[in-house]
Specification:
It is built from six helices and twelve strands. The protein has about 200 residues and is an alpha+beta fold. The strands form two sheets. It has a nine-stranded antiparallel β-sheet. Strands 1-7-6 form a three-stranded mixed β-sheet.
């Protein structure tokens, strides 16, 4: 593969990262990216670029992700020797509201999920094939009880505080429209991207 610098913005809009698309098979990934740094029968890793495959031939991709996206910084990120990502002004500290306001998708076409896991707050944006995961620093909650905080706060207060304390975690691309994968696993709350953006401002 020739060296390529691909656009983070284009990836977020389309779910495709240069030669990598979530509808590819394992053999096609090997053709364009070569040998992975880590390879299980159904999971490959190329630095921060990781992908899951069906364990049955022809090993269709289930998804690929940018892992540890919270460490993205600078003008570009080298994923592998021949594939780099132009960050287009985004980085690991970009807030959910900033992604929603960036013109990547119509805000009303994005869905924002948030939930409590133990003493942590999780937040995901789903838009087209893309799912962006955030972790929320809950040190701002005085007693550390995240569930109590969610129960006792107005949606406006929640969104404002969650957005201010959210850090990018990972970004997934699916071969179908992304949606919260495990309904019922957490008590997910749902807002449209438009409503979230309105409340965060």
């Amino acid at each position: 593969m020739k060296k390529q610098l691909v656009s983070f913005r284009d990836f977020l809009k389309t779910g495709k990262m240069g030669p990598v698309s979530p509808d590819m098979k394992m053999i096609e990934i090997a053709d364009v990216l070569g040998t992975p740094e880590h390879a299980d029968p159904d999971y490959w890793a190329f630095g921060k670029l990781e992908m899951s495959f069906d364990d049955q031939a022809p090993h269709q991709m289930n998804w690929f992700q940018i892992e540890e996206a919270g460490y993205l910084e600078g003008d570009f990120e080298v994923l592998i020797d021949d594939l780099s990502l132009s960050l287009d002004g985004f980085n690991g500290n970009t807030k959910p509201s900033e992604f929603l306001a960036a013109g990547l998708w119509a805000p009303e076409e994005a869905a924002v999920f948030y939930a409590v896991l133990s003493d942590d707050i999780l937040l995901n944006i789903c838009a087209g094939p893309i799912q962006i995961h955030f972790r929320v620093d809950t040190d701002f909650i005085e007693d550390g009880d995240a569930q109590k905080y969610l129960t006792n706060s107005t949606v406006s207060q929640l969104v404002s505080n969650i957005d201010a304390h959210a850090t990018l975690d990972s970004i997934y691309s699916y071969p179908q429209p992304a949606f919260e994968e495990v309904p019922g696993a957490f008590n997910w709350n749902l807002l449209s991207g438009r409503d979230y953006l309105t409340l965060a401002r």
